[in-house]
Amino acid sequence: MTPERVDVFVAGGGLAGLAAAAAFGETGFSVLLADPSPPPAENEHDEDLRSTAFLQPARDLLERIGLWDTLAPHAMPLDALRIIDTAGWPPEIRETRVFEPGDLGAASFGWNLPNALTRREMVRAIAKMPEVELCWGTGFRSLLTRTAEVRVNLTGGRQVAARLAVAADGRDSALREAAGIGVRISRYGQKVLAFTATHALGHARVSTEVYNEGGAFTTVPLPDVNGRPASAIVWMNDGPRAVELAGLDPAAFGEAMTERACGVLGPMERVGGLGMWPVVTQVAERLTGERVALVAEAAHVLPPIGAQGLNTSLHDIAALVELARGDPAGLGGEAQLGAYESGRAGDIALRARAIDLYNRVCRSGEAPVQALRRFGLRMVHDVPPVRMAIMRAGLGRR
Ligand SMILES: Cc1cc2nc3c(=O)[nH]c(=O)nc-3n(C[C@H](O)[C@H](O)[C@H](O)COP(=O)(O)OP(=O)(O)OC[C@H]3O[C@@H](n4cnc5c(N)ncnc54)[C@H](O)[C@@H]3O)c2cc1C
Q: What's the longest Cα–Cα distance across the chain?
């Protein structure tokens, strides 16, 4: 069978895969994206209320691929970040600091957007791009690489020849495995609960991180839900505690969450479904193989702190597409993939190390580590050059 030919094959139609397909398509490359899951449903937004905070630099990519104008009306600006350090149980507030984007000359740190809406709007925008084909219900199965191209076999028997295969097929990436690229994993014994909550007090577009034993409890502002102020909640706990919490009845869960948030948003109530994931740091041993590039969770999974996950992924995609734009004939070649590897590996490794350390310090119940945490928070916030450097690094600005 003669395979179909495209410039770029993308495995995975999550947020990262769709962003990669749109960015390559917008640059003029032909793209085939395959994902074994069904296409995002038109009403998915109403059922799945999870969200992602897109930091300022992510907007550049979304603007370039023509998505920002569609997403902007649904995006909740993040006007400040409040960090609350607590100790003991029930948690007692020891220290509070507020970080303002005005320090960096920006109006907001970023925008929170519902995942399902972002995905649906991306699919709609891509449908208008003649260079990009989205193939749902079909996954990547195997590959054969050659110097000039990669041959991809999809489930269902379709074969594709591409100059570059992009692995955006998530943390258990089949394409990464087929390319023979291993991963290094650190486990923490923690699980994260992610859901939407409504609360009595307004969030004033401030995102809050409350530290206590077990990990961070993060609230990220959302538009009102059922006429009440609402936030996306990302709640890390030691594994057994997370499982116990997930099994509580709604009233008991609401009480536990309100207590964990130190009441800063008033009484809280969960709405919609609850997702639970193990917290890991997982970094691929290499970002590239012959004619293959890894992006997003196929390349790096980070604990959900400081909105680094997808934002780091968008840096990967922007870097890969920029290299291809600069040398279209060299797409997927050794020089281009070498430049991608050397351009991204350092930033990913640094971010993974920083978040790993931050998570270990944040979750600790040990008194000396807690003291260090309080000292660190004061230092980072109260010394302006340190504060600005950390804020810039967190946003992914150079
Ligand atoms: C609780 C939580 C909160 C988070 N909050 C934030 C945040 O605020 N900001 C932020 O930047 N990041 C955040 N992250 C991280 C962010 O959600 C992830 O980085 C991002 O969703 C992962 O996107 P992805 O496209 O790489 O992977 P996925 O979303 O996992 O997508 C992978 C896709 O690959 C497909 N696939 C699987 N197998 C195959 C195959 N064989 N062939 C083809 N396709 C395949 C799957 O069907 C799926 O659609 C958070 C993560 C968690 C767990």
A: 67
